[in-house]
Amino acid sequence: MDQRSKQLRKLIVRGLEGGGRGHIGSSMSLVEIMRVLFDSYLRFRPSDATWPDRDRLILSKGHGCLALYAILADKGFFDPEELDSFCKFNARLGGHPELGKVPGVEASTGALGHGLPMAVGMALAAKIKKQSHRIVVIMGDGEINEGTVWEAAMSASKHQLTNLIAMVDYNKLQSYGATKEVLDLEPLADKWRAFGFEVVEVDGHDMSALENLVARLPLNAQKPTAVICHTIKGKGIPFAEGKAEWHHKSGLSSDDISALYECLL
Amino acid sequence: MRKTALNCVYDLAKQDERIVFIGSDLGPGVLGAMKSEIPERFFMEGISEQHVIGMSAGLAMEGFIPYVNTIATFLTRRCYEQIALDLCLQDLPVRLIASGGGVVYAPLGPTHLAVEDIAIMRALPNMTVVAPCDADEMSRLMAQTLDWPHPIYIRLGKGGDAIVSREEHGFEIGKAILLQEPGAGLFVTTGVMTQLALQAVDLLKEEGLTCGVLHIHTVKPLDHVALSHWLPKVKGVVTVEEHTRIGGLGSAILEFCNDQMPGQAAKIARIGIPDHFAEQYGSQNSLLAHWGITVETLCNVMRKQLQNA
Fold first, then answer.
1. Dihedral, CA atoms, B258, B262, B264, B270, nearest 10 degrees?
2. DSSP H or E segment with residue A249
3. pLDDT at residue number B157
């Protein structure tokens, strides 16, 4: 893992320290996905967060918000110091991201299965107005248990929303345990294909693979794109990797925080 | 009322490029003219109501004003979280046109009735709840929906209702309309129940009891000014709604009285649907009659209120 990926993870830990809690595993698996989007794909202006021609990113798995806050802080949407206020009473940075509070957050998410339907509406709006910006939505694997995801997927396909990129952070673990056991998603690529998407699978932590992929988007001139990112929950924190109990932690002590930082040296 | 509402959407869409229409799986040919003339802003999305609400939110975030139409109970019960979070939390100007508010779909049974819609919509911050009394009032409301900056729940009554609203009263969201000046009693009503109250007023007048009708087309925000003005002026108040007695218009008025003018609450009687699922079919009128929501009941309850006064 290179220094930039570690640095972004340190910002996540800073948020965890500020709030004393957070969705650790769910945020760590997102880091390289966020990194490639903000470094190499999305068009945005940190000082003008609602610039009309920006690309829209909806983090539909809102509980992974620390990864989003980390990259937004890194890009200058707000001062990284603000991560210290995570989940505090008057903070802008809540345990789930909210539109209108945090610059760079495009939709209030947290209840699962809401991001893709909203993204379809945004992509349709761009199509009606003949605008060229893209809409990216990142969903969790557990999240796509929700029926609304598949309602919206059918609609995206019907409207041939080539400006829509649906990404799945497929870390194979949801809150209770393995997605395979809770509600098996396989064959996942075939599911998205059957719903009318052009599908690609990628190692969600391999930066060069991710870079190559985003350079090819959209993958099909008639279909929306689905990107299944194979990831590791808790990536970068060896004692948390692949462990369902690190999905969310509260009551984090200073020792816990030190242990997290030590993994990122 | 529904036809009027949808025709208004088409008329508005012709004048304003922000207007889009989204239906779920409505009857064949609905808004056919709009579909052929403005196909890029007409959507029939299938039986996926929750998605439709999210999609309307996405469109509204990009500057459109979506008008969504489907059956009231599928909008409200099924999509409650989408309405709460996608529309209300983000405070987006989406208009929900809810067909068959109340027991319009009586013959289809309890799966198709919307009898707690006002209660649950009213409980959401930023939501506006409107129930016009007839098709003419629906047209006047629709003209006002264009620039209202919040989500609106528009409850449709049955088609072909008598026209009792009057042009000269105008229409303003959140402003009640006094359709009949009160004497001793005042009916406070919403939706098509206003029609029932006007009939009751005529019958009571024959007995020498003069009663008024305050039509609350907008249940939220509730017109506190009108209530503060009229309630203290009368001896008895009867609220009437085609809705469960839990959480609707009557409850809203009692809450207001309890907070602002507690002395007035005692004179208020509430007529509405009892707290159980419909067990019969028949028609809207037969179901309402079964629950005692009739002109006769309105008269009886008002007489009792005035006797006790």
1. 30
2. strand A249-250
3. 87
Q: How close A160 gets to chain B, by Cα (Å)? A: 13
- Compute the nearest-CA separation of B40 from chain A (Å): 6
Nearest CA in chain A to B63: A125
Asked whether the beta carbons of residue A116 and residue B54 sit closer than 8 angstroms, the reply is yes
Q: Does residue A218 have a cis peptide bond before it, meaning omega lies within 30 degrees of 0?
A: yes
Amino acid at B302: M
Per residue in B15-47, pLDDT (tens digit) is: 999 999 999 999 999 999 999 999 999 999 999
Q: What residues 27-56 of chain B have any CB closer than 8 A to a CB of chain A? A: 40-41, 43, 45-46, 48, 50-56
The pLDDT value given to residue B90: 98
| Complete edge-to-edge strand list for the sheet that includes strand B152-155 | B42-44, B19-23, B65-71, B95-99, B152-155, B128-130, B218-220
Q: Are A121 and B54 in contact (CB under 8 A)?
A: yes
ipTM: 0.96
Nearest-Cα distance to chain A for B46, in Å, is 9
Cβ contacts of A253 within 8 Å, gap of 6 or more: none
Nearest to A36 by CA among A67, A80, A77: A67
- Specify whether the CB–CB gap between A107 and A67 falls below 8 A: no
Side chain identity at A54, as an amino acid letter? R
List, run by run, the mean pLDDT of 10-residue segments along chain A (265 residues). 98 97 97 98 98 98 98 98 98 98 98 98 98 98 98 98 98 96 98 98 98 97 98 97 93 96 97
Among residues A54, A61, A57, the alpha carbon closest in space to that of A36 is found at A57
Q: Which residues on chain A are in Cβ contact (under 8 Å) with B45?
A: 155
B contacts of A121 (beta carbons < 8 Å): 54-62, 66
Q: Given this model, what pLDDT does residue B309 score?
A: 77
Please answer whether residues A217 and A165 qualify as being in contact, where contact means their C-beta atoms are separated by less than 8 angstroms: yes
Q: Give the chain A residue whose CA is nearest to the CA of B57.
A: A118
CA distance A49 to A53: 10
List the one residue out of B53, B88, B48, B83 whose CA is nearest residue B67. B53
Residue ranges with strand state E in B103-247: 128-130, 152-155, 177-180, 185-189, 211-215, 218-220, 236-244
What mean pLDDT is predicted for residues B69-86?
98
Set of chain A residues whose Cβ sits within 8 Å of the Cβ of B151? none
What single letter denotes the amino acid at residue A198? E
Distance from CA of A100 to the nearest CA of B (A): 8
Supply angle C-alpha A161, A162, A165, rounded to 5.
95
B63/A128 Cβ within 8 A = no
Q: Are A186 and A172 in contact (CB under 8 A)?
A: no
**Which tens digit of pLDDT belongs to each residue from B161-204?**
899 999 999 999 999 999 999 999 999 999 999 999 999 999 99
Q: Tens digits of per-residue pLDDT, A167-207?
A: 999 999 999 999 999 999 999 999 999 999 999 999 999 99
Q: Is the peptide bond before A187 cis (omega within 30 degrees of 0)?
A: yes
